[in-house]
Design goal:
Shape: globular
Helix content: 25-40%
Number of strands: 25
Number of helices: 10
Strand order of the largest sheet: 5-2-1-9-20
Bound molecules: flavin-adenine dinucleotide
Structural class: alpha/beta
Radius of gyration: 22 Å
């Protein structure tokens, strides 16, 4: 499945799937009141959840779909690094749910606070109780506070993570604006797995662009908790070409892992050095959003194991987990991936609710990165289930060529822009 399926394509695929599977009722169907459609509750209205809710209604309008989302406005992370660099307005990242409601998805703007898997019941913070036949959890990530000693919610007000877009994005932007020329910026990048593998390096590139053009005496150090990162060669070549002398990357084995921070004194420590940056962007380790833990679908890693045909939890039946929160084998935690998983999950739900077995899916992900205005690089892959895991289809993906001409980088930047418009249009437009 791709991130740009039109409504007509989706309906066509669904019709073909339903015809192929006619008579193949091998799964138990929910016991329904006469004329009532099955009930699906989706928690989380981001890239995964909002896609899934809408897609379900497109595939089968009889399904009663309720989307539970904590905020009335969604603020997207992709392209938020450009907001930090002052190249984009945060408003361009923000979307409402009116069009989703127009498609007859019931929207409930509240926090889901409890799940009873046996009773098939979701409780919202305001007291509303929602029964379901199938539940989809798409809560994104929560930050692991204190996994970097000293990095608390209060510390994040001085040392922003900006890993959930919104106020934190603007805070980091304001700090860069206020910083004197010649100041030091630190980005602390976590170990895998985390939301958006190329994200910290795209951010470094965008901030370096700001420093180069506005505060050229300044420097940026990436303190990394790993020894290798996504699209590394492409990034490092681009940094050499575009930002010589500005970005320094310190790998794990060179002592890059941050061992402690102190927000009061603006200190960032590793086992080998103590830095006193003007701006500290600490991206801490993450885990599935808390509701996943409360529902009993997160394992010891903090993430949610699922089967790869319909993203059903392997820990709790009738609960599906999609997007950043799930363990999707080789698929990265990305908005494109979340959208693809949501479509596969919606198609599987339609079949499961009709007592049929889900089809075997193929999923695509592409991560676009903007290294500078008109300079884009990408990594793409196709995935399929093998022995209960999503694995990469060999030879079906790849990264941008290392030696591509300027025109190719310009084109990829345009593709990135087009991707964001297409995906957000499909989900919220
Ligand atoms: C700086 C940055 C850049 C990125 N760039 C890209 C990119 O270029 N391309 C790309 O593909 N991906 C990118 N990503 C990754 C992308 O943002 C995530 O992978 C994507 O948002 C995951 O979708 P999701 O639906 O799982 O989570 P989210 O989009 O975060 O949605 C989760 C939603 O659930 C809601 N929620 C959580 N818990 C509850 C609850 N208990 N009750 C009600 N609502 C709840 C939240 O309010 C939120 O709206 C980037 C991320 C970052 C941080």
């Amino acid at each position: 499945m791709t991130g740009s399926l039109s409504r007509r394509d989706v309906l066509k695929t669904a019709a073909a799937g339903a015809a192929a599977a006619a008579g193949a009722a091998t799964f138990p169907m929910p016991a329904l009141a006469q004329n009532a459609g099955p009930r699906v509750v989706v928690v989380g209205g981001g890239f995964a959840g909002a896609t899934c809710a809408r897609m379900l209604k497109w595939l089968d309008p009889r399904i009663a779909v309720t989307l539970v989302e904590a905020n009335q406005t969604f603020t997207a992370c992709p392209f938020s690094n450009e907001v930090i660099a002052g190249l984009r307005d945060l408003k361009e990242q923000q979307f409402g749910y009116n069009k989703i409601a127009d498609d007859k998805v019931v929207t409930a703007f509240d926090q889901a606070s409890a799940v009873d898997p046996q009773g098939r019941l979701v409780t919202l913070a305001g007291g509303t109780r929602l029964n379901y036949d199938r539940l989809v959890l798409a809560p994104g990530v929560d930050l692991r506070w204190d996994s970097v000693p000293g990095y608390t919610e209060a510390a994040a007000e001085r040392m922003p993570h900006a890993w959930k877009a919104g106020e934190q994005t603007l805070l980091l932007r304001r700090q860069l604006e206020a910083m004197p020329d010649g100041g030091l910026v630190i980005i602390a990048a976590p170990a895998n797995p985390y939301r958006c593998p190329p994200g910290p390096y795209e951010r470094a590139s965008q901030i370096a662009y700001y420093l180069k053009t506005q505060k050229p005496k300044s420097k940026l150090i990436i303190l990394d908790a790993k020894d290798a990162f996504s699209k590394q060669r492409l990034f490092q070549n681009a940094w050499k070409e575009l930002y010589p002398g500005i970005i320094e990357w310190v790998s794990l084995s060179s002592g890059g892992k941050v061992s402690a921070v102190d927000a009061a004194s603006m200190t960032v420590e590793t086992d080998f050095a103590k830095h006193m940056p003007a701006v500290a962007n600490i991206i801490p380790p993450q885990k599935a959003g808390r509701i996943a833990e409360l529902a009993g679908v997160a394992d010891r890693t903090g993430w949610c194991p699922v089967e790869p045909f319909g993203f059903e939890s392997t820990l709790q039946p009738n609960i599906h987990v999609i997007g950043d929160a799930c363990i999707a084998g080789a698929m990265p935690k990305a908005g494109f991936a979340a959208n693809a998983q949501a479509k596969v999950c919606a198609a599987a739900l339609v079949r499961l609710l009709a007592g049929q077995r889900p089809d075997e899916p193929r999923l695509i992900n592409t991560c676009y990165t903007i290294v500078a205005p008109e300079y884009g690089i990408t990594v793409a892959a196709v995935y399929r289930p093998v022995n209960g895991q999503l694995v990469e289809v060999q030879g079906a993906g790849g990264t941008s060529p290392v030696d591509a001409p300027k025109s190719a980088r310009e084109q990829e930047a345009k593709f990135a822009d087009g991707w964001f418009k297409t995906i957000t249009g499909e989900i919220f437009g």
